[in-house]
Amino acid sequence: MKKEQFNVTGMTCAACSARVEKAVGRLPGVDKIAVNLLKNSMVVEYDETALDTQKIIGAVTEAGYGASLKESAQQGKAAKAMQASANDIARQEYEAVKKRLKFDEHKLMDVVNGISELIKLPDPLGKVQLARQLDDGLNLYRVSCPIGVIGIIFEARPDALVQISSLCLKSGNCAILKGGKETARTNKILFDIIYKAATSAGVPEGCMLQAEQHNEIDELLSCHESVDLLIPRGSSISL
User: For 10, which DSSP code?
Assistant: First the structure.
């Protein structure tokens, strides 16, 4: 069974919601239906082998009301990232470049699966890697800890931003990210999603920054006392 929520417009009374419920309820494959007049919404559970979203919307329309599939917050964010990717690609001339910039449902699932696997890994921080007694009452320990602030300049690939930022978060490091200008729109949306998720989970604000202008690279290179490690990633041209 599949469960979907719909926005329904035009319902002004209990009789209206009853008509909507009756119109959808007689469709083959519908198992449960709940219409909420106050929220102008409807939840339908149905057998997706016998019915689909468009048929449900069509039934509501025939009853004299408007309907649309309610988009979840997660779906909305993903859709914005994919639309931004399409806009970035449209501005490119060469097919090889377009392929590298693409961020679609397949790439989305790849990065989501990658993050899921990263979460499963043990916490790399606070691990005693070496313990040695140098003298009576004098012990030497090597314990894993964050590097600090890491600046990363990387190629124009949206999934690279997700991989790099998630690795920095997992290892307890702050990150300054500078991606290729060709994916500026996609990177901005992905960065905002990751940053909001991180701070909502309790990571301090300012844990991640995004450098968007090319001249910010020179500034980043000069931050000797603020940036602990600078990593150029990509082709040998970047190096």
Answer: S
Q: What are the pLDDT digits (tens) for 56-100? A: 999 999 999 988 877 656 667 888 888 999 999 998 888 888 888
Can you tell me the distance from the alpha carbon of 44 to that of 53, in angstroms, rounded to the nearest whole number? 10
* Residue 19: how many other CB atoms lie within 10 Å: 17
H helices within 65-222, ranges in order? 73-90, 95-101, 105-120, 158-170, 184-200, 216-221
Q: Tokens representing 22?
A: 């009756």
SS3 145: coil
Predicted local distance difference test score (pLDDT) of residue 239:
45
State how far the Cα of 114 lies from the Cα of 220, in Å rounded to an integer. 28
Per residue in 162-205, pLDDT (tens digit) is 999 999 999 999 999 999 889 999 999 999 999 998 998 889 99
Query: What predicted TM-score, i.e. pTM, was given to this entire model?
Result: 0.66
The burial class, CB within 10 Å (0-12 / 13-18 / 19+), for 203 is middle
What residue type is assigned to position 212 of the chain?
E
Measure CA of the first residue to CA of the last residue in the chain; give whole Å.
53
Q: Which of 163, 181, 186, 190 is nearest to 102 (CA)?
A: 186
Instruction: Give the whole-angstrom CA distance, residue 98 versus residue 75.
Output: 24
Q: Which residues share a beta bridge with 68?
A: 7
